[in-house]
Each structure stands twice: as C-alpha cells, then as structure tokens.
Amino acid sequence: METLWYALVSVMMAVYVALDGFDFGAGIVHQFVAKTDEERRTVLNAIGPIWDGNEVWLLAAGGILFFAFPRVYATGFSGFYLPLMMVLWLLILRGTSIEFRSHVEGPLWRSFWDGVFTFASSLMAVVLGAALGNVIRGVPVNQAGYFVGPLFTNFLPGAHPGVLDWYTVLTGLFATAVLAGHGALYLVWKTTGAVQERSRKLATKAWIIAIVLGVLVTLATADIHPGFYGRLISRPWTWVLVLLVIGSLPLIFRQLQRGQELAAFLASAAFIVAMLAGAAVAMYPNMLVSTINPSYSLTAFNAAAGQTGLKAGIVWWPIGMLLAAGYFTYIFRTTRGKVVLDPEGHGY
C-alpha cells in the first residue's frame, strides 16, 4: 500500500509539472515571442482558460502527500519554509499579472505586469528545478526527523547544505530551459503568425540548451548521488522510462520540423513525465534522504500514514481523479484550436 501511494504522489507531481509547466514556459518566453500588445494578449489568451486549473494539481498533490505521508509533509514544509513562502508569492504574482494586465490600457501598466509575469514564471521554474535537486541530493534530516534548510550556505553540497548550492542551481537552470521549451511548443501549437514563428525558433534553441544542461545534470547527479542510476537500471521495467526520456528528445525536433505541432508538444510532455517518473523510481523508497545519516532518511514505509487510512483513501482517490480528468477534458475541448482574439478587446 505504501508503494502504491508513493507512485500516486509521484505521478501527480509529474502531471502537475507537465501541465503547469507550459504555463510557466509561456511566461518565460512571452516577451521574446510577442512584441506588440496584441501579440502578448495572444499568449495570455492561449493559457488564460486553463492556467488556474493546472495549479489545482499542485494543491491536490500536496493534499495527497499530507494524507499518505504526513511525516514527509511536516518535515518538508517546516524545513523548506522560506522557499515555500517564495513559491506562494510567485504563484500570487503570476495570477495577479495575468488577471490585472489588461484592466488598464496604459502601456506602462501593461509593461509592468508583463515584466512581473516573466519574472515570476522564470523564478518558479528555477525553484521547481532546485526542489528536485534537493530531493535527489538530500537534506539534513536529523534523528528527530526534522531539518532546517537555510536558503544557501557556501554553495557546496555536504552534510548541512543550503537549499541552493551549485548542484541545485544547475538543476534549476535545467528546469528553466526545459519549461521554456515546453511553453514555446505549446505556443507553436496554439498560435499563428509571428508569435508562432518566433515560438518555433525559440523552442528549438531552448531544447538545445536543455539537452546540454541535461548532460551536465546527469553527470553531476552521478557524482552527488552515486547509487541513483544503479537503482534506476536495476529494475528491467524502468528501462521503458529511460528509453522514453531519450527517445522523446529527437521526436520533439523531428515533429517540430515536420509541422506536427501537437505531436511535438506531447513529446515534450512525455519527456517531463518520464524524467520525473524515472527520478522517483531511482529514489524509491526514499522520500527525503538525510545527508547527516542515511538511517535518518524518511521513506515510503517509515513516513506513511496508518493502513486503515491508506486503504480508505484508495477508494476515494479514483473518484477525484475521474472528476479532474473530466474537467480537463471539457476545458481542452472547449478551447481547442488556435487562439483568436476578441475584436472588441475582451479577454486577457
């Protein structure tokens, strides 16, 4: 039962990053691919109907983590208090910038919120990548099962690292490049004209940078966490994830070159989900690895809730997921096709 809930939490987090990731990516690139007010409104209208729904997956994943692994939730949220407050404010700033931008027609007002949107989206991508880096590298969980994580210390991994060091910054930059490419591919799929062409060119550049940074992250991970890849390839079925990560990258470029816009975007989403799923498999059963003493680590077994609760939750989880899947199917079907701006200026 613990293994099943570990898998469900991992899947929900991966789905969140793939879905909200293209929102972040659109925010990262929108000032580069959209030069006029009309073009920037096009970008915002591409994500406008779905961005807030995508963020529900973050709340759902956090709720499931609290329900299934309360010790991990308590330890992580107390140790990462400052970064989580940063995440909260960045999400508020993103939502505010999207909703407030077009309330006033002044160029200064709209330029300010465009800048806020880019800043918050870019920093959120870095924070997500750094969070993954912290999980892989480990945190200073003590014997009592808690830790205090300063934002940074000497930027070197060790027994008592900060949230930011050279490794987590590298993973943050890698995540930013991946999400920028993911968002640009989404804009290629949903827009036309100059925005689409600029997005196409930027997507290619972003994914080339992501591949270079990905190689560096792979080498750094092998040094920081020596057993990481050994556990990943020791299970034959996980080779599917490895092949999906490797195979999705050339597919992105091939489908983009062929004009298969949706296929390229789906290949990007497959890369993100497979990469995060692979990371979860390589970490299993660890959820928060202790850099002080491996025996202090929180795992899916010593941090799980009681069996009665886990068994009851498995009955209700599919119902919630079916409702969420139905909602997203409805939203994507009603907003299918290319973005067309309202001639009277309504909308984002």
Rg, nearest Å: 20 Å
SS-based class: mainly alpha
Gap between N and C termini, in Å? 45 Å
Give the helix level as a range of percent: over 70%
Elements, N to C (H/E): HHHHHHHHHHHEEH
Mean pLDDT: 92
What are the low-pLDDT stretches, counting only 5+ consecutive residues below 50?
none
Count the E strands. 2
**In what range is the share of β-strand residues?**
under 5%
Q: Order of strands in the sheet with the most strands?
A: 1-2
Task: Estimate nothing, just give the exact number of structural domains.
Answer: 1
Q: What is the helix tally? A: 12
Main β sheet profile? 2 strands, antiparallel
Shape: globular
Q: What does this molecule look like?
A:
The protein is mainly alpha-helical and 348 residues long. The protein has one domain (2-334). The protein is 74% helix and 1% strand. The protein contains twelve helices and two strands; from the N terminus they run αααααααααααββα. It has helices at 2-33, 37-47, 51-68, 70-79, 81-100, 107-137, 166-190, 193-224, 228-234, 239-258, 261-283, 307-334, and strands spanning 286-288, 298-299. It has a two-stranded antiparallel sheet with strand order 1-2. α1 (2-33) runs antiparallel to α2. The radius of gyration is 20 Å and the shape is globular. The model has no long low-confidence stretch (mean pLDDT 92).
